[in-house]
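Re: export button greyed out
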Amino acid sequence: MRVLRAFESAGLEYVLIGAAAMAFHGLVRATADLDLFIRATPENIERLRTALRQAFQGDPEINAISSEDLLGEYPAVRYVPPTGTLYLDVLTRLGEVANFETVEAETKDIDGTSVRVATPAALYRLKKGTIRLQDQADAAALRDRFNFKDEK
Amino acid sequence: MRQRCAIGSTSKTRNEMPVQKFRSIEEMNKAPEPNSQEPPFERFVRLCSQYWAIAPKPYPPGIYKFRSIEEAQKARLKNSS
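Workaround output, generated via the alternate export path:
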């Protein structure tokens, strides 16, 4: 929650796409990470750094998150905070087509904090074609819960 | 073969049922948690807290960069095995 509040406070443009997003839609499972797309602009990446510093007591490791990487050769950055518990997988793009702009999202409220969350249909599209077993299980759960019909 | 989830046969709601019966493990896995009065995100946070308390910590703190999600997932598998 502290991270989500910091995202809102910093004005970060993001959308949750992993197990946390699934939880907002009623499909609850444990996870080690928080997956999110962020809008791929230098200003937004600065907001990300601001939010993470706020949430994790100014951890100096956060300085290593750079626009150069996220907008260039490294569109996926994993941040493991000093607490060593939940880590964040921050993405600016996934393959050729999926990014912040292409993922349909909705705003949820949790304890007065607005949270941008991928819709069930968007999550299903992201997960159904992947080879990771957990993603396949998530896609099956989404299909069953929301009656998506396009494929088994 | 998939079976439709058909929980119990009493007139009580699922939250009042002390015992639920299932015809298969698939049916059991599809059933909502009995304690589903709790909002899903709060349940998620609680579950993750329990998970983080007992799960191995796959990474030392810091920043890790990947050229693709596949590369990130490979690193995750390598570190969790």
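The interface with chain A takes residues 30, 33, 40-41, 43-45, 47-48, 50-52, 55, 57-69, 71-73, 75 of chain B (CB under 8 Å). The button fix ships in the next patch.
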